[in-house]
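User: Sequence for Rhodanese-related sulfurtransferase below. Tokens please.
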Amino acid sequence: MKTEEVGASILETWTADEVAEAFSRDEIVLIDVRTPQEYMFEHIEGALLMPMAFFKASKLPGQTDKRIVFHCGSGARSEKVARAAIDAGTARIAHMEGGFGAWKGTHKPYIGTNMATGAPQLVN
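Assistant: Structure tokens for Rhodanese-related sulfurtransferase:
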């Protein structure tokens, strides 16, 4: 994990492997900031959806039980959202480097769309 001091806050950049390990141990809440359409087509199973267009940093829950890690398609939107959370007073926040593309690139499972039926399906 890479860390960057932003004023009095810390921005963490996690790899897909780090996110997968922490997510499997239920140590983090993974928040997808892509559009609803992107999420419906394919997403990480169990990730929550909070599209960047509707993001309100002041509405984020505290992180006493689980850490929050944002992700998007490439890492650009999730970094912007993480920085917005810092601007709103969050002391420590994280995002996934490379986004969903990195997740898929490391061959981690996700929910995709079966193009023949339109139904969701697990992709390994």
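The radius of gyration is 14 Å.
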